[in-house]
Design brief:
The structure holds two protein chains of two kinds.
Chain A lengths: L1 H29 L6 H17 L4 H29 L4 H23 L15 E3 L2 E3 L1 H23 L1 H11 L1 H6 L4 H26 L6 H16 L4 H21 L5 H15 L16
Antiparallel strand pairs in A: 1-2
Chain B lengths: L1 H26 L7 H19 L3 H23 L4 H21 L1 H4 L12 E2 L2 E2 L3 H24 L1 H11 L1 H6 L4 H27 L9 H14 L5 H20 L3 H22 L13
Antiparallel strand pairs in B: 1-2
The chains are: A mainly alpha, B mainly alpha.
Chain lengths: 292, 290
């Protein structure tokens, strides 16, 4: 029983870590809460679904959806956020605009696909491989490994590559970065591409493991916000840890409390962190979102 | 006729909501996505009191406002230290927690089934049982809230609020206790929102959690932003537009589920367009541009 709960925490946590990482990457580089990340996430799942319904095998549908999600994220940046930044919009203005885009995205999905639950499953639910008294399906094994791999790649990208260093520079001080010859717009666009790809990857994994509704993006987004704040904005290990913490809190909470209080636990964590440690457990100063 | 009265009553209720949110978001610059939570508090307090104790309207209004103010203090004191966008996230978390309580605490709130059979309001011994009578009461309370907020924002107190909105450090340098002002405004705004909830509970005589969702909060915030934050007439105009507009969609004859989604798509696009081209809304003073 307990080993199954721990395993479920790890699976949920791996997904949340990916969403949080994508969201956090955009926040620290562009400096505002990109709520429309939730719409990109849901769009990703539905892109897989439509490609798959059109007869494509999942091996093509998933990469196609990831590319599609990246494009949506980049379009949001080029079409809306960049013009707003040009007008020196505050982070609140950007937040309101992204909330607007989130609402539009979610309701467009509802209009096109309907509000009912869609699934990619065809056959029976597979039984899963027994591990230490718990059961793990192949998809779930894939979730854990791809999450670990992608978090590692992100760490490498930010710490060891040129564009990663540019992203850290923009996160630290966009004006200074521009003076040093970094093309800030391009770096932010890159952050949107990577962030959206991470979010959509998480969404496709969820779609493969369970199912999808147009509303799935909202909760994923909120979890990402909570995970990023709990972990400490601007820290990759922080976002990953934050995701794992939310996954564990949800699953352990569901073990002891009725499941309908799961969300309440997650939001109580948010309020507790914002009250006592708004910089999160790995963040540095509060005034300035840290650097990666 | 009954239909027009219904629209007018809803406009009165939304007027209370937008004016009180405008005090918090438009005049003091604290963007909140938790207004529907306080609206819900007012509705549930009124419903429980009048179902179990048959209390009269004035007492319900007072009790709703006091409970909402109390919750507002609990929320505002620790969380108003936060920077502006973190504060938005905190209000979102608060909204979600309260919605979950409305939805899950079945013993108290009836859970998803809601609370049916709320008695009609009783004021000075008369039952407010017809729509025209209720409209008079609702409009009276809306006017009262409007004048309270107008009095506040046009006084020296209101000038301090605007100073905080425009430049918090500057207000602090003038010796104003910025955090204390913010807490006061948030608590007053929340208490006023609960009055709207009280009216709503008496009007519909049935409440359930779907009226107090984050979507409702976003709708109230959109009314303020699109109408124009930081002015009093703007948000009321926003409330009128966003209340009447969905009814027009219904007349055109869209299926109700499609119409609901279309409406949301429109609100969302309007928010984005407003931020791009008219952050002050139709007739506002403040475009969240600090």
């Amino acid at each position: 029983m307990l080993s199954q709960i721990l395993l479920d925490s790890l699976i949920a946590g791996s997904i949340y870590a990916l969403v949080a990482l994508g969201f956090g990457l955009v926040y620290s580089t562009a400096g505002f809460f990109h709520f429309a990340h939730g719409a990109v996430y849901a769009a990703g799942a539905y892109l897989v679904f439509s490609a798959w319904s059109a007869g494509l095998s999942l091996y093509f549908a998933v990469p196609l959806a990831i590319v599609g999600g990246m494009l949506i994220g980049m379009l949001m940046e080029i079409g809306i956020y960049r013009p707003l930044r040009r007008k020196r919009a505050s982070n609140l203005t950007l937040l309101i605009a992204s909330l607007g885009m989130f609402i539009v995205g979610q309701n467009l999905i509802s209009l096109i696909f309907g509000d009912d639950t869609k699934t990619l499953r065809t056959g029976l639910v597979s039984e899963g491989i027994p591990i230490l008294g718990a059961r793990l399906t192949k998809v779930q094994l894939g979730i854990i490994t791809s999450s670990v791999l992608l978090i590692g790649c992100c760490w490498f990208l930010l710490k060891k590559t040129k564009i990663g260093r540019a992203m850290r520079a923009v996160a630290d001080d966009p004006q200074l970065a521009a003076i040093r010859g970094i093309n800030v717009d391009r770096v932010i666009l890159f952050a949107f591409a990577v962030g959206s790809a991470l979010g959509v990857t998480a969404a496709t994994l969820v779609a493969l493991d369970s199912d999808m509704t147009p509303m799935m993006g909202f909760y994923a987004l909120l979890v990402a916000v909570v995970a990023v704040i709990a972990g400490g904005i601007g820290s990759i290990p922080g976002a990953a840890l934050g995701g794992l913490l939310i996954g564990a809190a949800e699953q352990l909470g569901a073990w002891r409390l009725p499941t309908e209080w799961q969300q309440t636990i997650v939001f109580s964590i948010l309020i507790l962190f914002l009250t006592f440690r708004p910089q999160g457990f790995l963040g540095r100063s509060f005034d300035k979102p840290g650097t990666w | 006729m009954e239909y027009i009265l219904h629209l007018l009553i809803m406009i009165a209720i939304y007027t209370i909501l937008v004016v009180s949110l405008d005090l918090i978001a438009g005049y003091t610059g604290l963007l909140s996505i938790a207004h529907a939570a306080f609206y819900g508090i007012g509705a549930y307090v009124t419903a429980l009191l009048s179902i179990h104790f048959r209390t009269q309207l004035p007492l319900n209004v007072m009790a709703s406002a006091i409970v909402a103010a109390f919750l507002g203090v609990i929320f505002a004191v620790p969380l108003l230290r936060l920077r502006d966008d973190y504060f938005v996230v905190a209000t979102l978390g608060f909204q979600m927690i309260l919605y979950n309580i409305f939805n899950n605490w079945v013993g108290l709130t009836g859970g998803p089934l809601g609370l049916p059979g709320i008695p009609k309001a009783i004021l000075l011994g008369t039952r407010i049982d017809t729509s025209p009578k209720f409209l008079i009461v609702a409009a009276g309370l809306a006017l009262m809230v409007y004048f309270v907020v107008r009095r506040l924002v046009r006084s020296p107190y209101g000038r301090v609020l605007k100073a905080i909105r425009e430049d918090e450090r500057f207000a602090q340098a003038l010796g104003k206790n910025v955090r204390w002002y913010k807490v006061q405004v948030f608590v007053v705004g929340s208490a006023l929102a609960a009055i709207a909830g009280c009216l709503y509970a008496h009007y519909t005589t049935f409440i359930d959690p779907t009226s107090f969702t984050v979507r409702e909060s976003i709708l109230i915030t959109s009314m303020v932003i699109l109408g124009g934050a930081g002015s009093l007439r703007g948000p009321i105009l926003g409330a009128v537009m966003l209340t009447v507009f969905p009814e027009l969609l219904r007349f055109i004859g869209f299926q109700s589920s499609v119409a609901a989604n279309l409406r949301q798509v429109l609100y969302g696009s309007l928010l984005v367009l407003a931020m791009l081209y008219r952050p002050h809304g139709l007739m506002g003073e403040f475009g969240f541009e600090k």
